[in-house]
Every structure is written in C-alpha cells, then in structure tokens.
Amino acid sequence: MSSSPTSSSSSDLSLPPALAGFGDVRLRVDVILGRGTMTLRACLGLQRGSVVRLSQSAGQDLFVLVNDVPVARGEVVIIDDSVSLRLTEFRQKTATEALA
C-alpha cells in the first residue's frame, strides 16, 4: 500500500534555514502491511478471492518507509470513510547516522 499523506500539522512545521528551500519536495511514502513468501505454483494460481498469508500478526504495527528508508511504525485508524495511519514509534538513528 502506497500513499502520499498530508499531516494536518505539516504546514505548521518550520524548517531550519538550510532546509527551507526543500519544504515542498515530494517524497514517496510506503506503508507495509506485511510480507510473505509463496511458491511460483501458488503465485500463478492466485485469483480474485485468494488469500495471501503474511508474516505480520493481527494488531501488530505497520512499517512506514520514506523513499525506501524505514522511518516509523504505526497503527491503522479509520477516520470517516478513510484509512489512515497513527504513528506510534519513530526509528532511532544509529551512531553512524548521528555522526553524519
């Protein structure tokens, strides 16, 4: 599942002067429901109504990737008729990333 979410607070975010010119750059955001494996035979046999088993447990947080980089985890929420994601945890920087 891919999306281009707009947070209600994103327009209120003030960027450091060095990043001010990049505030409107669009990034691809992917929310990963889960992953699984199947044989080629099973894949070729998929049809409408087929169920694909995933490794993710029911109720477990989903993964959020920005330009293929894992940045957060979150839980599904329903707002009106729309599916959204409430962020519950942000990825901590590694020591190497913090020094860069």
Provide the CATH architecture: Roll
Spatial strand order of the main sheet: 1-2-3-4-5
| SSE class | mainly beta
CATH class: Mainly Beta
Low-confidence stretches: 1-5
- What is the CA–CA distance across the termini? 31 Å
What's the overall geometry? Answer: elongated
Order of helices and strands: EEHEEEH
* Beta-strand share of residues: 25-35%
The total domain count is 1
Count of helix runs? 2
CATH topology annotation: Surface presentation of antigens (SPOA)
CATH superfamily: SpoA-like
Major sheet size, sense and barrel closure: 5 strands, antiparallel
Q: What's the gyration radius in Å?
A: 18 Å
- The helix content, as a percent range, equals 10-25%
The overall average pLDDT, rounded, is 83
How many β-strand runs? Answer: 5
